[in-house]
Amino acid sequence: MGKYLFKASYSPEGTRGLLKEGGSSRKALIEKILAGMGGKLETFYYAFGEYDVYAIADVPDPVSAAAIGLAINASGMVSITTTVLLEPGDVDKASKKSISYRAPGAS
Known about the structure:
The chain is 43% helix and 29% strand. By secondary structure, the chain is α+β, with helices and mostly antiparallel strands. A hairpin with a 6-residue loop joins strand 2 and strand 3 (53-59). The model has no long low-confidence stretch (mean pLDDT 95).
C-alpha cells in the first residue's frame, strides 16, 4: 500500500455543489471511495490558495490511485493532482541503488 497526496481544485460549478452539500459530505464520499478500493483516508483539509483540498491517503496500488484521479477529473467539477509520497526509508533505499547517469552536455 502506498501513500498519495491528492490536491484538488473546484470549478465554479463544483464550488456551487460544495456550497449545497457541505464539506463533510465530500470528505465522507472520498472515505467511501477509498474504503471500496481497500484504501484509507489519512487526512483531509480544505485550504485557501492554489488548491481547495489537500488529502493524504493509503491506496493499494498506482493503478487504483490513477483510477481515483481519472474518475474525479472526468466529472469536470474538480481538477485533481496526484503525488506519490515516499517514506524516509524508501529514500534511503533509493539512495543505495546504483544508477549510471550523465547530465546533458557533461563529459
